[in-house]
Design goal:
The chain has one domain. It is built from 3 helices and 4 strands. It has a two-stranded antiparallel ribbon with strand order 1-2. Strands 3-4 form a two-stranded antiparallel ribbon.
Length: about 80
């Protein structure tokens, strides 16, 4: 998470995730991707989609992803870090 925050501060307008549309790519910047991940993270918590589980004397939250390689998968992965 530290590296993500550092890159967000250093290069917020650089491309991070691209999606192929026809023969070209549409890119999202670091700032856009992190904003989407933070919004998704807040939504997951508000809807209680990752309930807290106690195991090994600690509290955990688990979330599973089953999807093709897409930007939405990567954004969900980052959202799980918040």
């Amino acid at each position: 998470m530290k590296a993500i925050r550092r890159n967000l501060e250093r290069i917020p307008h650089h491309d991070l995730l691209g999606t192929r549309v026809g023969d070209a790519y549409e890119w999202n910047t670091w700032r856009e991707v992190i904003a989407m991940a933070e919004d998704l993270s807040h939504g997951i918590m508000a809807l209680k989609l990752a309930p807290e589980v106690e195991a090994e004397d600690r509290k955990w939250r688990f979330m599973g992803i089953q999807a093709k390689n897409r930007k939405e998968w990567a954004i969900t992965n980052v959202a799980g870090m918040f």
